[in-house]
Description:
The structure holds two protein chains of two kinds. By secondary structure, chain A is of the alpha/beta class. Chain A has a domain at about 5-95 and about 170-250: 3-Layer(aba) Sandwich (Rossmann fold), CATH 3.40.50. In chain A, about 40% of the residues lie in helices and about 25% in strands. Chain A contains ten helices and ten strands. Chain A has helices spanning about 40-50, 70-80, 95-100, 110-115, 120-140, 155-165, 185-200, 210-215, 235-240, 240-250, and strands at about 5-15, 15-25, 30-35, 55-60, 65, 80, 170-175, 205, 220-225, 230-235. In chain A, the strands form two sheets. Chain A has a six-stranded mixed beta sheet, sandwiched between helices. In chain A, strand 7 (about 170-175), helix 7 and strand 8 (about 205) form a beta-alpha-beta unit. In chain A, helix 3 (about 95-100) packs parallel to helix 6 (about 155-165) and helix 5 (about 120-140) crosses helix 6. The longest helix of chain A is centred in the middle third of the chain and has 20 residues, at about 120-140. Chain A is globular, with a radius of gyration of 19 Å. The relative contact order of chain A is 0.17. Chain B is an all-alpha fold. Chain B has one domain. Chain B is built from 13 helices and two strands. The longest helix of chain B is centred in the first third of the chain and has 27 residues, at about 1-30.
Amino acid sequence: xxxxxxxxxxxxxxxxxxxxxxxxxxxxxxxxxxxxxxxxxxxxxxxxxxxxxxxxxxxxxxxxxxxxxxxxxxxxxxxxxxxxxxxxxxxxxxxxxxxxxxxxxxxxxxxxxxxxxxxxxxxxxxxxxxxxxxxxxxxxxxxxxxxxxxxxxxxxxxxxxxxxxxxxxxxxxxxxxxxxxxxxxxxxxxxxxxxxxxxxxxxxxxxxxxxxxxxxxxxxxxxxxxxxxxxxxxxxxxxxxxxxxxxxxxxxxxx
Amino acid sequence: xxxxxxxxxxxxxxxxxxxxxxxxxxxxxxxxxxxxxxxxxxxxxxxxxxxxxxxxxxxxxxxxxxxxxxxxxxxxxxxxxxxxxxxxxxxxxxxxxxxxxxxxxxxxxxxxxxxxxxxxxxxxxxxxxxxxxxxxxxxxxxxxxxxxxxxxxxxxxxxxxxxxxxxxxxxxxxxxxxxxxxxxxxxxxxxxxxxxxxxxxxxxxxxxxxxxxxxxxxxxxxxxxxxxxxxxxxxxxxxxxxxxxxxxxxxxxxxxxxxxxxxxxxxxxxxxxxxxxxxxxxxxxxxxxxxxxxxxxxxx
Lengths: 255, 300
């Protein structure tokens, strides 16, 4: 059974269908690529799966539970976390706080323990800080932990997105264009991070437009167009298929 | 002169309490509440009615003011759950006006625009007025100190971190696994409760409340106090409140060195002096006098 199984997912905005019955599955232990032309519905799919936008039809089953229409915080606590295309986050928090925020099971986030500074909250905070330091060291963010997140470079923000997702101890991470706008050397580095995390037992579903990255990193690759899944297979298979080329390039009418 | 200073410090402390309340909901959680004076009025009336009309002890009145205003805060937070920024500001501003207009018209309950007089104060009538004023100042200062201590705890706790995250981006906070609406309601409720408590303390101090004490200008002063002091910082909230009262009162003495001006001109001059100072602060120190500090947590 797949880790994430989506069947017949639908969502439209003001009568325009963004998702018109998406079916796809993400196998545990894979880096599954999700490609498709602009407007294919990839980000809407992420929004529906992560609970930010409620779907209007279809089912999302994650890790054996039907999570269709759940609140985003419940989905995240269940082990499915997503990143954002334009590195979004908390510019007014430090890098360390950005990481700590994603730490699960912090009793200090409840009102009374926070008011009274319960020891349980402080202990958990210490554990989370240790974890955050380890993740930051892995992503080469350890020198900027006390800087405000707004002071990071574009590439570092992308790394922080991944780091934050890791703090939740997820099973599945949805990455929305993790290397968009990043220089080639750093893109390579991010790819290496993902491969290492895969070896640690994580699963990824990645939206990306850099085809060489997709080719090297992702298997299988799923193609979306016009709110549907169009094709699935290895990158080579996908690239060879006529309807995929058509979806990207348009159809040749003359001749 | 001492009596005057004591009275001004009491008002400054009450402003400080309101400013701390605003800092929780706006400075930390990023929800602009322009209905401060509405919650202030709810607390004032709740405690005045319970102690004056039903003869309950003052502490019961204060507790009831906190709970009642806090409960109303929950309702307002639920109604405005999907609003942000300007929209939230307008709705909360409207809420405060609704409270004031109800207080003006429901004469059976609030005595209308005549207000409620003879609200009891602790030891009032048993000790000389100067002693009463001093005792009351100490009570209010104690309340402010406790509120400050608890809010500092909140600000530096993971709870405070979630509020500041929601201030930056509530969608990403949800993805981070936080039940955003619950945090917003909690922040709003505590903040409203504190405002209600401030209103109750005000009523027991002046012994008289009426709708004309609850005009939007009071809210504006608190917003200015927090902006000047440093949005997001509890110490800044207190500092800003002190500054506002100092300016409101200090400018009274302009008359001494501005002879030849009429009373109306002097009043206008005071407003100009207050406004100019705030503009200068916001121009040259937009983060406020004592800005929010980021915690340093990297080192072991």
